[in-house]
């Protein structure tokens, strides 16, 4: 673990120079840019965005997507490319990338746990290096702890066989970036948008049900109300 911290500090110090020296990949839909966009760093309200992105429910959390990856150079570059794609217009998603967004000198574990709580979804870039790093497995378990049965986790696999896929998330659908990376990036964006759209839809349904209950018949002295209460009694079970 101490070696991991040394590698992290070294990687963050050389981040700018690595970005200048390494050529961008040709299979990414948008140019690589590691500069945080306004959509990533801003916590203010929405501005001229699609309905799912402009909803108040979305802006209750700081990030739309948190991206977890290993310290391997290839994984770092892949995560940067993905975040650049998602943050670029017209997608305008707000992403958390710990190598960029963790404050220097702050406790990394604490900041990561807070970022998990402040993000709608978490993406795991699962590669051979990811499976070898204890820190990555910690990140995966932390994300699972926040929502073990929810739809908030997006596994992304690259260059691993099916038998290496972590058992902890075997019931989650994954996106295979090894087949078509452009299509994979677009699918990630669509998944985030679908999640936000479902949030808005569920909120509207809930509000509609609340309004209907307020506008319904009074329970006091109503035989219909008595029938509903009796019908909602828990069913008896036999062992």
UniProtKB/TrEMBL annotation:
Family matches, as PROSITE patterns: TIR
GO biological process, one term: toll-like receptor 4 signaling pathway
Listed Pfam families: TIR_2
Region (Disordered) location: 16-48, 205-239
Domain of life: Eukaryota
Protein source organism: Pleuronectes platessa (European plaice)
TIR domain segment(s): 61-199
The protein's name: TIR domain-containing protein
Biased composition (Polar residues): 25-37, 210-239
A cellular-component GO term for this protein: plasma membrane
InterPro entries: TIR_dom, Tol-interleuk_rcpt_adapt_Tirap, Toll_tir_struct_dom_sf
Gene Ontology molecular function terms on file: Toll-like receptor 2 binding; Toll-like receptor 4 binding
């Amino acid at each position: 673990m101490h070696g991991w911290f040394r590698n992290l500090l070294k990687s963050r110090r050389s981040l700018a120079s690595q970005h200048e020296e390494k050529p961008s990949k040709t299979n990414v839909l948008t140019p690589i840019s590691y500069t945080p966009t306004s959509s990533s760093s801003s916590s203010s309200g929405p501005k001229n965005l699609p309905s799912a992105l402009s909803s108040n429910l979305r802006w209750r959390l700081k990030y739309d997507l948190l991206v977890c990856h290993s310290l391997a150079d290839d994984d770092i570059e892949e995560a940067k490319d993905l975040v650049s794609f998602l943050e670029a217009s017209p997608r305008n998603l707000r992403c958390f990338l710990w190598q960029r967004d963790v404050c220097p000198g702050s406790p990394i574990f604490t900041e990561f746990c807070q970022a998990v709580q402040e993000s709608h979804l978490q993406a795991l870039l699962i590669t051979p290096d990811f499976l070898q790093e204890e820190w990555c497995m910690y990140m995966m378990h932390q994300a699972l702890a926040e929502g073990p049965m929810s739809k908030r986790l997006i596994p992304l696999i690259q260059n691993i066989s099916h038998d290496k896929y972590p058992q902890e998330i075997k019931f989650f659908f994954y996106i295979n970036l090894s087949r078509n990376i452009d299509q994979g990036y677009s699918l990630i964006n669509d998944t985030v948008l679908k999640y936000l759209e479902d949030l808005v839809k569920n909120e509207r349904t809930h509000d509609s049900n609340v309004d209907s209950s307020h506008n319904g018949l009074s329970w006091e002295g109503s035989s219909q109300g008595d029938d509903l209460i009796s019908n909602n009694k828990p069913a008896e079970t036999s062992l």
